């Protein structure tokens, strides 16, 4: 039954994928809830079409519906999905299995959950060849190694024998791409293929997809919330909001002249598309050492034992200073030493050597109650607002908890402080008795910030605090942080892999690579004239350079 599609090429000029009137719904206790409303679009051979929008816009539901992989309760209500001219909407799963991988392939978002942990990499790549009858046995294993080499994995023979947990995130994503291209499909759906990857790994993965598209003439439907990636990598854009297309057209046309107010807001909020460097407050000069340095890190070293008397140096001779009331960013790829550094600065672990001074207090000299009280002065806001809040507690209890640990106050006083702090982060009083699951991602992160602020700290350590948020929510949280810093004279230590965000929020920056400090200084100095080749590589990998946009105040108000 699949013969009319498998191995065929669409008529000259005809689209590889033609979607018309697509409607997707989910069953819940109240019946059917429609999440994608009558959308139409097409993708042609060798073309990259980007599907963009915030969480809940219907991007992933659309992609999953096209390939017949909607989660439980999902239903393709109506519409046609023509693949190389044949309508595959409503095909049974067994029939769809015949074209998945051979004609249409999916590169999923999370490589950690998409590979079988108990099978080798080589077995999993070879499986698609075997299932579709293209190779078997030794021939499939040889072809699997060739595919791993084709997607740029070093030592492909070794990788084929390894298990997923033995590979980095970027390596695992390359494996998924190897599986996706194994049978040279007509269409690849790439669903947030780089969202969990460092900026340089992200660029390499996107370059790889681009190379394969040019080599094979494959069409690509790129699902992403990153407007910078969409700007750099797509020929056409489709902007979704609440399951409806707001506009679609050539990427350059939409970026230069967006017609929808929603699109204008998305573009205005995207840090990678807008040059909005932060201006230093008068008291936060980035020049030489000063008595007003609230954080001083001097020649920090952290070794970890690896067994058999071996050791691994995670932080190697790192020094930097942070002026009171300013924002200092620490950037670098996974394994660069960022997390270890902030854990030491936050007094959660003691370094092997070196010195950390917080507001004049040497952390190495603090013990017991003195050390405990220091932690009132420095508070953390974590990356994931979905994982950092106790799902069993009410919002009131979550924000109140630090007060129970550090302050002797009556319940009335505590609850008054909780209410005042939630108001400061612009949350309504009616959320006090709700639990985290009833809040949006942006609301949850505001709760996390309130929990950190309730003790009136001087320093906030923000560990990837906006990386899990949609671009518009991210912009709102960054604005809130800027407002709080000015009102409360807070000092921020901001850890991020997103250099576009760093340029927007930070005054000074330290760049780490392999545990060593490769560059430090004022943000504009480092970004404009980077001295280190590694820093230049990081900056060059930031997406959004294809169509740079200056900030336009009318874009913000238009949204």
Automatic annotation (TrEMBL):
Protein location: Cell inner membrane
Major localisation: membrane
The entry's keywords: ATP-binding, Nucleotide-binding, Transport
Membrane topology according to the record: Peripheral membrane protein
Keyword Nucleotide-binding: yes
GO biological process, one term: transmembrane transport
Coiled coil: none
Annotated ABC transporter domain residues: 17-267, 295-539
InterPro entries (alphabetical): AAA+_ATPase, ABC_transp_ATP-bind, ABC_transporter-like_ATP-bd, ABC_transporter-like_CS, Oligopep_ABC_C, P-loop_NTPase
Gene Ontology cellular component terms for the protein in this record: plasma membrane
Protein family according to the UniProt entry: Belongs to the ABC transporter superfamily.
UniProt protein name: ABC transporter ATP-binding protein
